[in-house]
Amino acid sequence: MAIDTALIRRSWSLVEPRQSKVAADFYALLFSRYPQVRGMFPAAMDLQRDRLLHALTRVVLSLGEIEGLSAYLGQLGRDHRKYGVVPEHYPMLGACLITAMRVNAGGNWLPAYDQAWAAAYDLVARVMAEAAERDSHTAPPYWTATVVGHELRSHDLAVIVLRPSHPYLFQAGQYTTVQTPQWPRVWRPYSIANPPREDNLISLHVRVVPGGWVSTALAHRTAVGDTVYLGPPRGSMVLSRSTASHLVFIAGGTGLAPLKAIIEETAWMHERPSVDLFHGVRLRSQAYDLPDLLRLREQHGRMRFVLAVSDDPAHPPRESVADTIARHRLPADSEIFICGSPGMVQACTARLLRLGIPGHNVHMEAVDEGGLALPWAAPSVGR
């Protein structure tokens, strides 16, 4: 059955103002009809409802771009293996989702909307299930990893080194999801701060979020020798397609981690590109990785490093990283990678466009959104 995107969008507009209620009703239906799946979810469901809404919105708005949506859904299907999701679960979820939307449409729901959503959901489920099946032949659903390094660089930031029990194949710039023994079934994404290494070690930069479950556990309740669990690598902000001779990396806070990994990867290239790294922090003391970055600059040989400090009177000039990049000459053909908070990413992107950098040369990732997903996934970075 063909997907009628016009019907999908029209029906979504009926329930979008009540999307929180849709999510609550969806989970109530799912757990009452299929109580056996309740154990796959965390005990606290408030954040889980937000993830469903975020994922739904993205899928609805992307149905007209099936190629990009398929890549996104395939990644989700592979990632959902760590939750124990199997093909039999997808029809349960689809039926409850359509029912939840129907009962919240204020009597304006049409039978044609049921049919349109069923067709769309069948496609979503098929792409995810097929990706999971292919992945099951080459990788485990999740990895057990031992903590082999733990350095608390400030009261709210730790650098943690992990050794996965099996080869962990990823690309520089990607992120992993982490579950700690203290919080079963709660996964949070963290960017990997190094490129692939022969010793299979990965480094994470963990910023503690106030009230954050996993970030607090990793920073303050985890020690060398402890065990954590890793989901499959995710993310598409990688260097593999770049042929540019000049690369610019713009980081905010711990958004530094994936960019540092990509820069280290360029240092090994036979014809290494020249690199500019701009790291934005509020206070000079928050430049938590400065010694490593200076070593990386010496190792690379073609790297310029600029620290932007926005709110520290003792470190003039006080300016945002967006203001800092405007003061430095960037070649118009630079390929640019940005990672930081959503506000920082938006500000830097807007500034770059005003400076004449083509939009297709700018790659970005907001560190507090993490990977979007359907109900069994979509963790928020740092909680």
TrEMBL record:
EC nos: 1.14.12.17
GO molecular function: 2 iron, 2 sulfur cluster binding; heme binding; nitric oxide dioxygenase NAD(P)H activity; oxygen binding; oxygen carrier activity
Residues of the FAD-binding FR-type domain: 140-240
Keywords from the UniProt entry: 2Fe-2S, Heme, Iron, Iron-sulfur, Metal-binding, NAD, NADP, Oxygen transport, Transport
Catalysed transformations (reactions): 2 nitric oxide + NADPH + 2 O2 = 2 nitrate + NADP(+) + H(+); 2 nitric oxide + NADH + 2 O2 = 2 nitrate + NAD(+) + H(+)
PROSITE patterns (UniProt xref): FAD_FR, GLOBIN
Family label: Belongs to the globin family. In the C-terminal section; belongs to the flavoprotein pyridine nucleotide cytochrome reductase family.
Broad EC category: oxidoreductase
Organism this protein belongs to: Spongiactinospora rosea
Cofactor(s) required for function per UniProt: FAD; heme b
Protein name as it appears in the record: nitric oxide dioxygenase
Listed Gene3D superfamilies: Globins (1.10.490.10), Nucleotide-binding domain of ferredoxin-NADP reductase (FNR) module (3.40.50.80), Translation factors (2.40.30.10)
Pfam families: FAD_binding_6, Globin, NAD_binding_1
Domain Globin: 1-133
PANTHER family membership: NADH OXIDOREDUCTASE HCR, PROTEIN RFBI
InterPro entries associated with the record: Cbr1-like_FAD-bd_dom (IPR008333), FAD-bd_FR_type (IPR017927), FNR_nucleotide-bd (IPR039261), Globin (IPR000971), Globin-like_sf (IPR009050), Globin/Proto (IPR012292), MRET (IPR050415), OxRdtase_FAD/NAD-bd (IPR001433)
